[in-house]
Protein: PLP-dependent aminotransferase family protein
Amino acid sequence: MRPSQSDPGRGTASAAWELLLPAASAPARTRGRALQAALREAVRSGRLAPGTRLPSSRDLAADLGVSRGLVTEAYEQLTAEGYLRSGRGAGTWVGAAVRAARPRARDLAPRAPGARADFVPGTPDLSLFPRSAWAAAQRAVLADLPHQELGYPDPRGLPGLRTALAGLLARRRGVVADPERIVIVSGVAQATTLLGFALHARGVRAVGVEDPGSPQHDALYAAAGVTTVPLPLDGEGIALRPLRESGVRAVVTTPAHQFPTGIAYSARRRAELLDWARSVDGIVLEDDYDGDFRYDRAPVGALQGLDPGHVAYTGSVSKSLAPGLRLGWLLVPESWAAEIVERKRTMDLGHPALDQALFARFVARGDYDRQLRRCQRAYRERRDALVAALAEHFPGAEVSGIAAGLHVIATLPERYGPEDGFLARVAAAGVAVRPLSSCTHSRPGDAGAKEVRLVLGYAHISPARIAEGVRLMAEAATG
Structure:
């Protein structure tokens, strides 16, 4: 009920009494703060509109059954904050400075499209998150962590985590991992932004990116004032001639499992890429986003291990544990370390210490290796299920790329084209897919392509749902 602006008498007092009654029933030691909070919220929400005259402190105190001093103190506090205004002998009024706003907390997190079958790539199976082992590690860390470790951390990260990661990355990915050059970051996105700022500070205004490649790179580098130059691929990796002709001195690569084409850079192309970096005194930015997941052989080692002075290496737990942890690492050449660390310091003063200590224990005790093996088994089974389902329901479809990661490239027979018509039909059937063209920079001939090439994610879907989803897609494509 809103108090009348024309009648400041008992009707107003009764309405105010109704609004503030719960606060008046609060325990004596918190009653004053509760009364102020309730009155403040009534003004913010618009239930007490600007220009509304409030009851006198004596009347309101009598209605609420509290002391007059409590009401007087509330009026004085909210007047000082600007919610109320008062004048000698003129009473107390709701001020005009406050604008009522509907309280809301929107969720802007990227979510699954709610489709009957979701093949959008990039999402791991979050049900595989090791809750029991994580909880046990958390309890142990909370029991053992020294108090001083809860202070502001080294912006590079806790020494214990950097040491554990150095061992892990050297053992699993073949990197040259000096703990002094590892920086703990909030995922590959922050690592990319840090590198962008460091490039900009050195006068670099353009960075080469794979085309096709991750759509996120453009926005992340743009935030640091660096533009992206799309560079085409060939069967071995990023094409060297366009790279040399571009004039860039920095290039972003995914050499272990290129996103999205799924190729692994050849040994020759890896050597040529490093020769280029040395010749221009440049740097290769290696995104090892899913390098742990290879299903037909041991994973190819990281490019950084061949030349730590010209490669910055980054990875995260987003595909192995959960992207919501916002936990990753950046290993930089020695000549870049100081400026990257200083930029990390000014950006956020370092990654949360408790999360770092927890992950350090998780790595040191072998829990992370066990989690990687668990994911490896599950994702290999799901990739096999997707390849089999495509062969059954889309005869003649070609699956390209190495047996690795969390997605495949599927090229469908020409009879299913053109691409825009195919995408419209499967979307209408409730099947979510991503075309390969969404990962490429605009080029003539892309629109209305006759050939249907899809980037299909499978890690977050059970084998049974994969088979059902491909069946639905085939029915929609031929319907």
Notes: The radius of gyration is 30 Å.
